[in-house]
Design brief:
This protein is about 5% helix and about 55% strand. It is mainly beta. Strands 1, 2, 3, 4, 5 and 6 form a six-stranded antiparallel sheet that branches.
């Protein structure tokens, strides 16, 4: 199955959000490995933050980020720090993410 590109996720506008009511997961992939340190997630429904799981893929397989620190910046924005020191080529976000607007991933 070919990956689906999402303009609402790559437009750098936190006001444009997902419109697919069936969205259950999203994967972000790169050509090379990057260290994963923190993620900023913007949702237009902050009650959905608690449903999100983050899974990263390494040479050793897939692993859920176990040592998470969550910090609300405002009603729609959450900073998530993954305390596991990992390098990854892709990250999958699973949960009730139908209200997802933006993802910012830093290494």
């Amino acid at each position: 199955m070919d990956p689906i590109q999402t303009t609402w996720l790559t437009d750098e506008d936190d006001m444009t959000c997902n419109s697919d009511p069936n969205l259950k997961s999203i994967t972000v992939a790169w050509d090379i490995e990057y260290p994963l340190t923190w993620i900023r997630m913007v949702l237009n429904n902050n009650e959905m933050f608690s449903t999100v799981r983050i899974i990263y893929f390494t040479a050793n397989g897939d692993t859920e980020c176990n040592n998470l620190t969550w910090a609300y910046l405002n009603q729609t924005t959450m900073d998530i720090r993954c305390e596991d020191y990992v390098k990854t080529q892709n990250i999958t976000f699973i949960g009730n993410i139908v209200s997802l607007c933006s993802l910012y991933i830093s290494g």
